[in-house]
Amino acid sequence: MSSKEQESKRRPRHQRDAGPQGTQVFSREEVGKLLDEAVSDTDQADGAELRGVSESVHGQSYALAGNTMVVGRSPDCGIRIEEASVSSEHARLVRDDDGWRVVNLLSTNGTFVNDRKISNAAIKDGDHVRFGRAEFVFHDADHRIGSGGQRNFKSWWPLAVAAAAIIGLAVVFLLL
User: Shortest CA distance to 93 belongs to which of 120, 75, 57, 73?
Assistant: First the structure.
């Protein structure tokens, strides 16, 4: 074994996997862990789902659980779609503090949101999301406007608190 190989073995694994310009190599498992760490670990998805609308997936519905889900043909995917135009690991759905995003994973036939090809895009309730030829409508109960045109509690309570604070300050100012 050469002295260069011996020196490489003594360094920590993450340093051994770095290329000459500092490029680091990550396994799929490591990338998944990094994504999970980057996404907030707030409460589970509550009512978000994909509902199939194209012929090959019509009537199929997939609940989005957790903060990340991989879409593809592989049995390892959280959302498995048996459609030839879908890559084995086609896209990743990611939930963060702002809602859901879809990230294309270098798929052969592309990922689209409302017929626009994307690499990374935010999605909202009612958006059409297509993986290859498999098209779905995204539904997110957390971000829908409820009956009577009122937003759910999670989206309007900060505005109510701010408005109450401003009104309170105005009353105090007028009394002085």
Answer: 120
Tell me the C-alpha to C-alpha distance, in Å, between residue 16 and each of 9, 28, 32, 33, 165.
7, 17, 20, 19, 55
Q: What does DSSP assign to residue 35?
A: H
List, for residues 92-150, the tens digit of each pLDDT value: 999 988 899 999 999 999 999 999 999 999 999 999 999 999 999 999 986 654 444 44
Please tell me the predicted confidence (pLDDT) of residue 5.
Answer: 57
Pick the CATH number of 48-140 from 1.10.1040.10, 2.30.38.10, 3.40.50.920, 2.60.200.20: 2.60.200.20
66 dihedral zone (left: phi>0; alpha: psi -120 to 50; beta)? left
Rounding to the nearest 10 degrees, give the CA dihedral for residues 91, 95, 98, 102. Answer: 10
In the chain, how many H helices and how many E strands? 4, 11
pTM confidence score:
0.60
Domain boundaries defined on the chain: 48-140
Q: What angle do CA 81, 36, 117 make, to 5 degrees?
A: 45
